[in-house]
Fold these 3 entries.
Entry 1:
Amino acid sequence: MTNIFRGRLLASSLLAGIALIASTAAQAQDTGQISTPNGAAPAGDQDAAANGSDIVVTGTLVRNPNLVQSSPINSVTSEELQLRQTNVAEQFLRELPGVVPSIGSSVNNGNGGASTVDLRGLGDNRNLVLLDGQRIAPSGLSGVVDLNNIPLALVERTDILTGGASTTYGADAVAGVVNFVTKRDFSGVEANISNQITQRGDGNVFRADLTIGANFGDGRGNAVFSVGYQQADPVTQGERDFSINNIDSYTGLAGGSGTTVPGRFTGLGLGANQQIDPATGRIVPTFALFNFNPQNIFQTPFTRYNMFGAAHYEVTPGIEVYNRGLFSRNTVQTVIASSGTFGNALTINYSNPYLPGPARGQICAANGLTVAQCNAAATAAPGSADYRTFTTNASRRFIEAGPRLSTYTTTVFDYTAGIRGDITDTIGFDFGGNYGESENVQRQTGNGTLTRLRQASLATSTTACVDASNGCVPINLFGAAGTITPDQLGYLLGVTNSTLTRTTIAQAHGVVNGDFGVSSPFATQAISFALGAEYRKYTAAVISDELTQRPNEVLGNGAASPDVSGQYNVKEAFGELIMPLVEDKPFFHSLTLEAGGRVSDYSTAGTNWTWKVGGSWEPVRSLKIRGNYQKAARAPNIGELFSPLVTGLGNSANDPCAGAGVTAGSALGGVCAAQIVAGGGTQAQANALVGTIPLPSAGQINVTQGGNAALGVETANTWTIGAVFQPDFVRGFNISVDYFNIKVRDAITSPTVGDVFSACYTPLQAATSAACQAVSRDPVDGSLNGTADGLALPLSNLGRIATDGIDLAANYRTDLGFANLALSFIGTWTNSNKFQATPTSVNRECVGFYSVNCASIQPEFSFNQRTTLTIGAADVSLLWRYVDAVKYEPLALADDIDAGGGPLEQFQRIGAEHYFDLTTRFGVTDNFDLTLSAMNLLDNKPKVVGASIGDTAFNSGNVYPSTYDALGRRFAASARLRF
């Protein structure tokens, strides 16, 4: 009731705020633009670009502020973040066109405690995240930056650069760069406090920040310090009507996991009879899957404490020292459905006290035991000639224990110091260094261990295990819900597992930049340059407890986490030129050429060159035509180089070998049998299992992946061409349009699940072919679960990725007399995004499609449009977010049909979605303003497509919550005090 009241209070406050607009008298903020493209003055200030008042430096190391580079950049201001009521960087980035949702607060199963950004859908490891133009401590073995640690309270703007930028920033900047630029000369005190809650009274998010800054030394220096706290509550899938029940995408019926209660037991030779019926004690066909949705979550619990400090001081005229320190400690918790024995191979004695008599009789008959032998085995003790055991893949959910919890605590420290200044009036220098480290500790509870489970499964009484060591308590795997006692759980789950991931970055750089003092005969501005060198060293290590390192030991944990350590360094030299060729001539208001190059020497991958060439032409002052061509590169990260081979979980609801339609004598049956033998079964066992192989449990299968120390650098050719138009005859208006094209060669990739299935089964290959030997099956039931290695997904440099599209941005601001009107638009049309893992793999298109192969949704067209009306001291602003319609991947559908099925037609399309966020902001005094918002104003619900149609990380709760709002209408209020 309290939460509902809070939600209604925020809603009524929003309406009251709109009503108060006319009566407020303080100064309103400068708002209305979602982003400002480089090369255009802010709407409403035609002279700003010429005067250099809106300088964007991302994308070049050249010093001249009057030169705007040719790479397209959009800048999102801090005022836009305030209107969006944004609390973490990942939240607003994933809503921008051109950004594909990556791991963040809407990802539960698959979230490792960090939030990342994915530009253009090329992967979060192919774009570079910077803070004030410099790299910061990465998170995890992949070397990506955790956006949870970005200090938004001090961010002045966020620059998003399209296309490669390896020449300027080094490796990883293939798809582009996200540069968070902090406020340089903050003076005063600013306090912010905000609170959000859904209309349904859950998902509360609280945030508070305090920033203090001052100038000193007669204006020669400035220091700023900011502290912040944030806390977010979970939203469970059981609290939304569209997600409370798991839905099978292929039948439309209640779905769920085959690890269920009552338990299921496969590999017993009983055909379709797999699940215990508690009423009769018999093993019958599966009748109840486990609905894991209610325990899973749409919004991960999150707590953060962060500090940020920066200072600079001019020690002598033209010489300045500077430093910057960042500290953040955040905790992310994932909540996943109860643990269990997920098809683990167990040896159980016929005299187990919990094994029902009717089920024992069925198992005896299937294994060729006579009634007399079966009766004798039912009471036999170890050592007796009548003592017998059987092996089964057991799937029993431990719902009595509650959910599994993984708590990720990340501590980040990053420090930068340097000196910069002038060598001459036109040439300067910047020498600096940085050290940062990130430590992520994962603690798991509620899982249980396989060793204890196997020990507890062998018992001849309810009070003592065959092996009574370690306080073993026999477990009842054959009972109904509630029959596993606290004592049994205490023994099975009485272990907490932990994994520590530590990464560091150490870097030093030196840059000399400025101009030569000479210019083209047809231009007045001098030719500008930048020359420099850089050194970076990365280290990373994963240290796990002994149980977590064992394959399959921690129940329900997916892959083991063996210890890993690795490091590499890179030495680089670079140079850039910006050359104004013609200025203020007929049809040549300006003509500028850019060029740059960088050589990188990697300790692991050798020497690599990157370069760029570009330019811009302004035939008249109001029109700029720009373009660039770059060769970019990305070196393999520590995870790709050094991770050991482990078997974890992938996604597929289908298995070409599953079901009674596959016979032992058929060609397909022969391939399936060979894959069972490869998994450790005998030929006789394999032949007997064909025709009874179960479908993947919960749409998940085993996959085997690892690093490859032989990996080399992947390279990319990227180019853009576009124009910026700012007509004199429409004051306050600017528009930019840019075409981008990115092609990655020698891409570090692994095949998709669909690639492996297609290579072996469509058309069917020989059992001895390399394609079919990439599949290994469980020897007990023939599935791709249990102890199977599953599908081999090796990393190689054999991949190719290509994407292209068009970005459009427009801004308009005008005075209506009674109010100011501001209109802003940014949109992206993505023509294609194709991925081919190897030369023999499918060249897969993922734009506008979703499936297990196309993990996170990338619509063909999306846009953000903001309309802001400013009346006196108040703003009313409406943000319209559009996501184009998408459909089920045609190649995945063809594979499903070949396997004998496919998702229901109603789940094969998600229609276009329109979201509206309404915000009102007004100044109560000159120093205090209040912002009230209603997000997802129309309370749109996400389209239900079932829970087995896509990747687990992004297809959750029957929907795609990272792309489509699963929380519903939310209300937010924030207050800002400045003095």
Note: Residues 1-29, 42-56 have pLDDT under 50 and may be disordered.
Entry 2:
Amino acid sequence: MTTAPGRRSSTFTRLLRHGFTDPSAAEQLLDLDALASVRSDPVLLEALGATADPDLALRGLVRIVEAGEESERQVLLDTLVTAKPLRDRLLGVLGASEALGDHLARHPRDWQALVTYESADLHPGVAEFEQGLADAVDPDSLRVAYRRCLLTLAARDVCGTTGLAQTAAELADLATATLRAALAIARTAAPEDAAQCRLAVVAMGKCGGRELNYISDVDVIFVGEARDGVDETKAMQAATRLAAHMMRICSDTTVEGTIWEVDANLRPEGRNGPLVRTLSSHLAYYQRWAKTWEFQALLKARAVAGDPELGAEYVDAVSPLVWGAADRENFVPDVQKMRRRVVDNIPADRIERELKLGPGGLRDVEFAVQLLQLVHGRSDASLHSGSTLEALRALAEGGYVGRADAAQLDEAYRFLRAMEHRIQLYRLRRTHLVPEDEADLRRLGRSLGMRTDPVAELNKAWKRHASVVRRLHEKIFYRPLLDAVAQLAPGESRLSAKAAAIRLEALGYADPAAALRHLEALSSGVTRKAAIQRTLLPVLLGWFADSADPDAGLLGFRKVSDALGKTPWYLRLLRDEGAAAENLARVLSAGRLAPDLLMRAPEAVAILGDPEGLTPRTREHLEQEVLAAVGRAGDAESAVAVVRGVRRRELFRTTAADLIGSYGTEDSPAEQDHGALVDRVGSAVTDLNAATVAGALRAAVRERWGDTLPTRFAVIGMGRFGGHELSYGSDADVLFVHQPREGVSDEEAGRAANAVVGEMRRLLQLPTADPPLLIDADLRPEGRTGPMVRTLKSYEAYYRRWSLVWESQALLRAEHMAGDAELGRAFVELVDPLRYPMEGLGEDAVREIRRLKARMESERMPRGADPTLHAKLGRGGLSDVEWTVQLIQMQHGWAEPGLRTTRTREALAAACAADLIPAEDAQTLDEAWVLAARVRNAVMLVRGRPGDTFPSDARELAAVGRYLGYEPGHVGDMLDDYRRITRRARAVVEERFYGAAG
């Protein structure tokens, strides 16, 4: 074909119009002598243009024609232009599969398999595929025969003769026939082994469910028995050799490539277990050791090859175990664990392209369906199907899944599976990744019937279906629960009350009957409020079930809804603010403290919908609000009531932020820096308590003296208060200092100061709905027997003459918190020489500190407490780390400014930076301190009261584990990790604290 320079030929233009992306190369191919007889035939060009990739189809056709005998070429070309069925099938396959094009180039006569179809060819089963593989006598001939069968199957698929479900079933039937052929080859190679044993091959996974991909591992389990008169051990050895040979026949790569991997890792004990077991051995394992996921896998078990009676016996024997799995002791925590997406091992750059495991992927649909089968299949045999689509249909027909939800999931699953099929068909490689290359995406889109703008249409459809799956895959657990307590239209199926209770129990609800009552109360009726609740609850129920105490979450939600149900903003906030509903669910179901704080003023739920709502407010902001409220109040008690209300609200803000940061949400992962979480809580609670003390001080002064107290007065924070390390249940350790104003006698100033202290403590402990703040002044000079408040000069005289080393150590935490700032600074300057003594501590002082620590360990540990699990006084706990750091501060603080801090972690980092402690030891101590601090916070959050040890109640212990980042069923790991981390810290303490004084 010659054209004038600079002008394109008419063929070039026609090729462009028919979808070729490289018309120049296609034009050259059509000019080859091999295609001389058909190059001008418009029918050929039309047919090529109808394929997924016209360029690929033409290249494949040329290769077949050139590879065939000369006498056969014209037969192929004549048939191609005169027989539309062959033309569509052959070119359709060549345009969709480079791998099958390679096969046809190696075996050019195999195109004839596509020429005619008998009626049986349109829907072949195992028998027809077995006939197609009958002549295979070795691995190579089996591969060739397998590809020939796959060629006809793919042709029906790409031409639309068969749908997705039929194609997947045919692929599974072809796999069955192939396994049988491979086993026959193995038996022929080792007749003596075949004579000694009975061997059954049970398909699992997608092969077992007759929903196989083009290229997928074929999961199997082998069951063997000895033949009469044969020793069982020898028979199992023979069966193992046969099974292993059969696997190699399918999996090995030869000159004809490979078929697919045969994977036996779903067997008992996985790769560590024997390849073949007897039926009794299988049953013994399943009855004693199997985990829930193994029964989930057995849903799809189907005998496919070998001894059919033995295979049937196996399936019949395990079936009752599968459908009784929901009655197992650990089913609920296993389900909670299995429901979480396992995407951690997917590289970040791949997760958005993952069809199978990514968000809104195939695994979401498959897992949701299988889990519902396990829960309800024990009482409904109609759900006993290995096919995802058949099971989904049965779930909808039984009312276990809403019909509309099931229809949307069915459509999305079929589309995603079709994408997966076409992606794998191209090169016959096992992959679930959507390609990134434009040409690959174009071919994929065209193969699915998208012709106008294939890439854009494909991406839009894919995202739409993935979004449907993401939205529905968990909702389908919960929407039918609402139908169970609702009035449905005539003819609508619903989940029975018994089935709803079973499902709630399987999802972790300890009292399903109460849960159903709550659902009915929340969602019944025809009001707008009930309609919004019916929209929210399916999602909320899933978040509640993701916690350690779903019942508490649902009950709390009902209480909040009852309290706020008539306020116009509440349900609108949860419906329209994406994070608010999930944040509320996390907060309500994680323990008692946060819900208790919220119930006292439910309007604080608005914090959860504000993007900045979980950020702790600064001390300056809090003091400004508190002091303004005191100024507006009529008397001290009403003033402090407002102050304590602010404290309760801010405590809720802090607990909510802590819980949400520890649990994570769907949009933001859990905070990985646990030290930062602890520091945020400590700083926020410290600032809040300081502002509260400042407010109580102002209220006490105003009540009796107006704006000016006869003496300057300051509150000094001590202990964890001064160290900005308060936990939720901590008291506020303080010292009170005053300085008489000019012209005021010491007696009058002292009386005023003591009166203020007494009034502050009374006001902060008045019985109200808000949590009290306990003021503890026991660290004052002379302890409980000493005066409650002293002047600065009195402190100076006492510390100069009577101070003991433990008091100097306690003063390491001293920091001004409220009242007269100048007086507070003067007190801190007064005690600096005591806590950071010049040239450090003498040997006697170091010895005394060690003696006091050892005495505390032996005397203050609660009777019966496990010293390896006590967060405060136990081995490697808070006390161990703090005393070690404080000893370093007292020894070296005079010379190292970085050590002059009231905060443990800051001081430890400064000691490491000054080479006073090795980095590895500092890291060990820091890790233990952070963990112990989080345990104390967790106990308070979960139980609603402070504690230094792990709870004994199983549900509370699980909730502590969830807060600390452990999945359900892993509290043993949590306790082991705690012991390990604190044991290492104690070893450092033994060396650094109890070792050499320098």
Note: The chain has a mean pLDDT of 91.
Entry 3:
Amino acid sequence: MNALLRSCLICYALMASMWAQAAAPSVAVYYGKDASMSELALFDIAVVEAEQGYDPVKFRNTWPSSELYAYASVAEAGNERAYLTKIPSTWKMARNGAWNSVVIDQTPEQWPAFFAEEVIGPLWQKGFRGFFLDTMDSYRLAEKFNEAEQQDGLVRVIKTLNARFPGIKLILNRGFEIVPRVKDQIQMVAAESLFRGWDANLKRYIDVPAKDREWLLAQLQTIRERDKLPVLAIDYVPPNDRDAMRTTAKQIADLGIIPWISDSLLFTLGMGTVEAQARHILILYNGADYPTLNEASAHRFVEMPLNYLGYIADYVDVRKPLPQNISSDRYAGIITWFGGAIPDQRVKDVRQWLANQSRQKMPILVLNTPGFPIDRTLPFDVRSSESTPALPLKKAEQASMYGFEMQPLSPPTDYEGWTLNPEALQKSQQLLSFDDAKGKRFVSAAITPWGGFVLMPYLVEEVPGTDQSRWVINPFAMLKQTLRLADFPVPDVTTENGRRLLLAHVDGDAFPSKAEVPGSPFAGEMLRREILERYRIPHTISVIEAEISPQGLYPQWSKQLESIAKQIFAMPHVEIASHSYSHPFFWDRSISRKGEGKEVDLNLHIPGYVMDLHREINGSVDYIQKNLAPPGKPVKVFLWSGDTAPSAEALAISDAAGLLNLNGGDTSITRNNPSLTEVRSWGIRKGGHLQVYAPVTNENIYTNLWHGPFYGFEKVTETFAMTDTPRRLKAINIYYHFYSVSKVASIKALHTAYKWALSRPVHPVFASEYVRKVHDFYEFAVGKDEQGWRMRGPGQLRTLRLPSTLGTPLMQGSVNIAGYQEGPDGYYAHMAFNSAQMQTQPNAAPPKQPYLVDANARISEWKAQADGSVIFSLQGHLPLEWRMYLPQGCSLTAVQGAALSSAATDRSFIRSFRSPQNSAELKAQCRAL
């Protein structure tokens, strides 16, 4: 093998070492509770406050390359520490007033054992194996102390910990003098405030004086060079000053020291050699405008574009107290969308809150209407938000992002635009503005120094005479530019291994209905014969208990119905779900439904039954599990019925039962209604629980609530196509009810949907697999370091969509990236595991090593070999189909004799493969020419 080719081939084996060339690990020190475990896993070591509830065992099992360390104070104990009451008064040397803690004498003979048993022992039992030992020098706060004896005591503590807890890893915060005596028993030494610090007495951030910095730097450099230990510098910067954080981190890193920069309490996820990408957007809305959060305009219209860009919406009702400490480690911006004026009693607080966020450099986007008059309290440089223009108005400026789905209409007679101060007008980019008859400029939309605003009616406009809406402005461009949203690899739930996801699920409605075909079989039997036997792809099938149980509405048919359900649930490509006990139409009974019409009564009327959430969810699942499910096959999914808007309580019950929930959203874009206002978000969170929306709505919408035409579900193929290009917004989802197999026309429509989907390169999954990917979206973490991007997720979501600005993955510089495929809106990169590193580059040259282009199956194993080859496994639900990029001299073979067939390689070196099996172990390797 020639040297050049061999150097190309071994790049897979070298990936991990290339990313680990820096001997020092990345470190985070975080005592807050809002960061996800995925975000903490971006770092090799994450020091946490154990009482915040992080699980080190789960963390280690999920991300073996990262580790949680527990904070432990050696020479101080605060009142919040339970063991403080057990410390004899004779061991208490002094008080640290700045932190309201007690300073502990290190000289008592019993102290090392006490510390090991009372402080470290409980943490070790929880699973922590690494510890950050703080307050090593606090004995110096006492009026009288013997330096040598105190240091001897500290040494005894460290030796005791190593003896009691084999394999323990320790980071010392200071304690410089004892390092040479314990250097073989510790992992790292840390110090605070090298360049930037916090004055605990004055309660302010400070620049460290040069003399102090030089002394501390000398200590750290001595330890690094003399004791061969990595050193960590923890500096403090105001939490929203990310630029200062980056500058300080670089100053420290340039000195060969591991940096960590955060706020004074270490409650924000700051930055070091890795910077986590803030993915949350806080949205203010007025709950009085909508019956439920599901119906809020911000959720209906804005959350989907935010999800597409990779961001997560957090909602706050302005009628309630607003959250404090909104920092840029978590939030990338704030949006307000009010339907009109907010309550008078809340105006002052909301206005002041927004002003504070703006002064903290948090971008703000005001949509539709500000909800209250804009005054000088807000640093928006708005002269007036309530001026009346002199008609007629003439269009002055219109940016290219306008006219997205319809052109802006002429201003209405009650038009209200903002007038800006001259300086603000000069510094802002007007997106849409008008001049009145007196030459006064009124601005309807602008990108401003503080963020931006887009006012009605130039945001989303209703189409006269219909129930349809249109985006007047491009929502993707609007959000990116006003909020200054960064491009990063987007965790994507539409695709896996380069192929669009396909799922099929059926709501249990009308299982007992009779099909209008010869023999009049039950709809359940018709579905089994006509659909499930023919299309053996993953299906998630549900039943309504009251429709088929002996105690339900049709006891005379129950034996037959249950037999059919058992046959369906026994099929290997069927996943079991519940569609409730009585099919409630409304799941949130706290909301008044007066004036809703007949739909209020659309449920199964069971004599003597009063709607009960536990009975609907837990009871129906228990019935199915005990009476219909094969042994060992659990009910995995709960499919919401009716208005599909469950309360937080209903979601909590579903979660507590270990169920994955799905339905709602009603994505139904078609050529008759070609608007992204009909495409919904991945889901909605309520009370800390996630409702996952069905990617595409069911046949009820396409058939006018089942009034006809009954072939209407054919139009779902338009939805499939329009949510794929020009942007892939949704997985393909064939979602319907049992009544769709009761009529000849609707059966033909189902075949049309299935045939359309299966004629495309798809990746079939069960609904439960899709739901888990959506859950992962909300937990997924993306970070950046000097080498490129770091990605960490719980493990189900493994696709990253790259915005065009990032280009393509560099395979030779990435770890656990199995390949990529060009999609309609950028490249889709395939993660082989839940943890990956990736380098990207625009206009990158084709790689010199094999990679996976696409597959209809999941990667279950991916191993880079020392000789440059790659052994990997695919596991799917159907006979395997995949494509590989195999440059000249490279080949793919099956391990252990699995049958493969392949098509000829084209000039792009992409080769197609098939196998009659649904799993295979494969080996890609290259040889010298």
Note: Residues 1-22 have pLDDT under 50 and may be disordered.
